[in-house]
Write a structure and sequence with these properties.
By secondary structure, this protein is of the alpha/beta class. The protein has a domain at 100-173. The chain has helices at 6-10, 53-60, 83-89, 106-114, 120-125, 130-142, 158-170, 188-201, 214-220, 238-242, 245-252; strands at residues 13-24, 27-38, 42-46, 68-73, 76-77, 91-94, 176-180, 206-210, 223-228, 231-236. The strands form two sheets. Strands 6-7-8-3-9-10 form a six-stranded mixed sheet, sandwiched between helices. It has a four-stranded antiparallel sheet with strand order 2-1-4-5, with helices on one face. α4 runs parallel beside α7 and α7 packs parallel to α8 (188-201). The two termini are 29 Å apart. The structure holds adenosine-5'-triphosphate (ATP). Keywords: ATP-binding, Nucleotide-binding, Transport.
Length: 260
Amino acid sequence: MMETSPRKEMAADLLRIEQLEVDFEGFKAIRGLDFSLQSGELRFLIGPNGAGKTTLLDVLCGKVKPSKGKVRFKDIDLSKHQEHQIAQLGVGRKFQAPSIFITLTVQENLLLSMRQKRGLLSSLVAKTTPEQRDKMKYYLHMIGLEHKAKDKAGSLSHGEKQWLEIGMLLIQEPELLLLDEPAAGMTDSETEKTGELLHKISDQQTIVVVEHDMEFVRQFAKTVTVMHEGTVLREGTMQDIQNDDKVAEVYLGRRGERDA
Ligand SMILES: Nc1ncnc2c1ncn2[C@@H]1O[C@H](COP(=O)(O)OP(=O)(O)OP(=O)(O)O)[C@@H](O)[C@H]1O
């Protein structure tokens, strides 16, 4: 076994889930799941269809309430909070359905997201402070859309729209970012850029990515958690996971990945 450094041992978990259970009218989508994350991690969550990955993200953002177990984010019990409160506590979730305003520019979309507490109109007409301008520039650069700042969001490619959405989440500066298949439907070069973006983000924020594209996971994952039937089957580096027979049996093998 690898020795953990003293610094790592001392680092408190950003997220700690113990014996989580989610019950959908008698069907346990999550059963006895333990999971923890430290600040600054980029964690990929994989597993066969129905393993409970989306349900886990739903619990983390407060969309689904657990029937049992503990969910602690920075030592706050998330099960006692509503979805909007959890967002304010610093958990940002990107859903697959787009939530950008296509008739507004890239910049305006970011601005709206930054000034979320105001109404739509007052957000757009309010004067931008130098700090806000700097923040906007910073995130525009991060998502690689500086040159499209004044373009209508509706004119962006699929990949660019996804990055804009990620930017809209980032500009709210959540501590934990939850992404569901961020590279789905992207071209190869967009997929590559998305992987690089995830690494850039993880310099400052903690990210959990649910992903089906194994090539993407192989290329960009640091630590992978494999879920199966509502619980964690294995956790480790992609290499550990790829060499694990049980994982191959329930997941990789099923898709013929090992023979590829
Ligand atoms: N609202 C619900 N009511 C009843 N069953 C549900 C509900 N949501 C999810 N399930 C079931 O819970 C199980 C876990 O679903 P979940 O979507 O979390 O899996 P997943 O790992 O994200 O799968 P996929 O990779 O296919 O997206 C599945 O069997 C699913 O049918």
